[in-house]
Design goal:
- The complex is a heterodimer.
- Chain A is an all-alpha fold.
- Chain A has 2 helices and no strands.
- By secondary structure, chain B is an alpha/beta fold.
- Chain B is built from 4 helices and 12 strands.
- The chains are: A mainly alpha, B alpha/beta.
Amino acid sequence: MPEDQSHTEQGQVERAKRLRERIDQLRRGQSAPDDSKKDKSLKEQIDERAREQNG
Amino acid sequence: MSALTANVALVSDTPVVDFSQISAVAAALQKQVTRDFGSIWAVDATVGAFDALESVPVDYWPVIVRDDINQPGAAGYHTDDTGQPFSLVQADANWALTASHEVLEMLADPFGSRTVAGSPPPDAPDPVSGFERVVYLVEVCDPCEDAQFAYSANGVTVSDFITPAYYNPTASAGIRYSFGGNIQGPHTVLDGGYVSFGNPVDNHWYQTIVREGQPQLRDLGVISATNGKSLRELVDQKVREAGKNEHYRTKPALTKAVKEWPLSKTSTARAKTLRNYMKKLA
């Protein structure tokens, strides 16, 4: 157990920040920050990166 | 149950809904999921209460209560930048009912693109009545979403929901089409509700809406490319583009926390009894 007993992890804090940015965009009527990045699913993006790194 | 457990986080991002309310509603939703919903939809899930968005573990799907999203396109289901689901709930007088709606729909179809084929809605007008077969977007609360069909868990008002039998080809005696027994046959929509479906021949999408007992058809047009979005997000976008936002909840936002809510008289009385008992033990 780390000395810091805080239940808040860095990943949670960064995710909360991204979610608030997304919510602000939704409130302004913007459906997505960059739809071009969402052309592919997460799995497709991971597979593509793996192929790139494996040459 | 051996299913991978889904974890939903109920969290307030507004001072008008405090943690005592979040924890009470999360407990009610956990009871609804475990007692009513999980066995019917083969879902194993937890609903946890969190005090801040920063406290939500990274593998939980957040249902976030805010006081500033009372506008088309903001409230409801969304996906984040990695395709994970989250929902926004407007902090109005019925936010617990809306949270129940969002949690159940998220659990039945977390990624928002599940469809089931079947005959067109029975009361749908032309041209839909002539379709041989349509595909329904699985949104388990929409057909029975009106507050008159809600029920209570722990004294908190929660949403009725359809069962998988809603997608059966024909009606049969003794079959439950919604948990509360309000829906009487497959593909039907109750007053104040709606259902979304598409024609697989040309991918043209529609909604049947029922208002004051009268079914209406909302033509959403063709969905030609998903662009990485879920079908639910695309259907919602089409509804906004059509300029018809009747199904978005536009009730007045809460302007201050309701301190008494949702403690019931029975809960308060039980707490008093327990405190008296502990005094005797001390």
